[in-house]
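// run 5 | inverse folding | seed 20
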């Protein structure tokens, strides 16, 4: 069975609005050293289990990197469009819902690259062991 990260990565690689911008540069949890934007990385911020059925509700952060703020926002909008309100199968994972919780711009003070952060809450069924 695939992990949530693998299922999300596989799904994102099928979304042409994203891959038209980043190509194959979708990584987790961090960008590989020396990666030039545009690129997308994501990571699980928290992992919370509900005591209703077997639902897990982690929070994920997607970092949408570009060389300028407009293209970082464009990539952020593509990610938002692909995940907001998603439900159903995502690979081997049954997604109950994906809810956008925050979205905003940042500039990396070291590299000068821009990113739009897309923060979501994922609710999915965790199969019984």
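// decoded
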């Amino acid at each position: 069975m695939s992990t949530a990260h693998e299922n999300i990565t596989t799904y994102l690689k099928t979304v042409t609005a994203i891959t038209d911008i980043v190509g194959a540069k979708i990584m987790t949890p961090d960008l590989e050293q020396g990666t030039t934007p545009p690129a997308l990385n994501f990571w699980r911020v928290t992992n919370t289990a509900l005591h209703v059925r077997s639902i897990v509700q982690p929070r994920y952060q997607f970092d949408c990197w570009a060389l300028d703020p407009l293209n970082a926002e464009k990539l952020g909008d593509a990610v938002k469009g692909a995940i907001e309100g998603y439900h159903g199968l995502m690979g081997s994972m049954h997604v109950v819902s994906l809810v956008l919780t925050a979205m905003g711009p940042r500039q990396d003070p070291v590299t000068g690259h821009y990113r739009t952060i897309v923060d979501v809450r994922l609710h999915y069924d965790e199969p019984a062991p």
